[in-house]
């Protein structure tokens, strides 16, 4: 008796298909169930949302004046948190400038376009001279130094000085000036690096920490305040419903609802005070300012050192000598005739 493998294979395939279909149907049923629960939950919340919206609008336009007052501690802490938030936002609005390396060199876009155009032209020229596929590939993959150099004022000065040095260095009569330009170019490049280091310190030790505070602590404070406001609206609506009720049989139910809303309002207020206090205990504004000032101090100290080391070959040009003479003019001599005229006019002293 032979075993029918074909029949067994078909039965297994049918069983697998049935299992997959059942699983898909179960997933679909679960999705429909979840959707139904979401819709039901949303629908059940619509009346409450509409009532809160109406109450909020009526309070804003002054139609409702019976508004529950928040504790003075909550109000004071909330105002302090808001002031610090504005302080952080104001500082970050300015210091975010340090996130852009080219903030001190507005014409960096034009230079970038020119460098890119020159790079393309140079590659085309080099490709026309390539004698092999490997050489052509190396030309295409090579990076232009001008494109990778940061577009800042100091690096632009360094680049311009270096180009001028190469230009003047073609004549032996201008070697001293070319040497001075080369020294100046090197110094500006160093200062450019120091400035980028300063910017990195400000980005990581100042800007990043402020953004973290705004996106976490202050965001939590805002969320807590929103919860308090929502609970306050619920409580005031419940109070209004009880006060305006004309059906005595509903008084007990409305009173219980009001008391529950009051408890939630009180708890939300206490929780918010805790959050506000935690935020204020971690503002660290002075520490942030110290970090910012230290970054600037380190930068300027390094700049002073580099600029102090500039010698320019210890050669003074004519312009410098003229300035030195002009800075200390000699007292003009008085002629003998002028002295005699002065004596005649004033006469002898008594």
TrEMBL record:
Give TM segment ranges.
none
Organism lineage string? Eukaryota, Fungi, Dikarya, Ascomycota, Saccharomycotina
On the tree of life, the source organism's domain of life is: Eukaryota
Segments of skewed composition (Low complexity): 326-350
Q: Positions of the region Disordered?
A: 321-350
InterPro entries from the UniProt entry: AH/BAR_dom_sf (IPR027267), BAR_dom-cont (IPR018859)
Name of the protein in its database record: Related to Protein GVP36
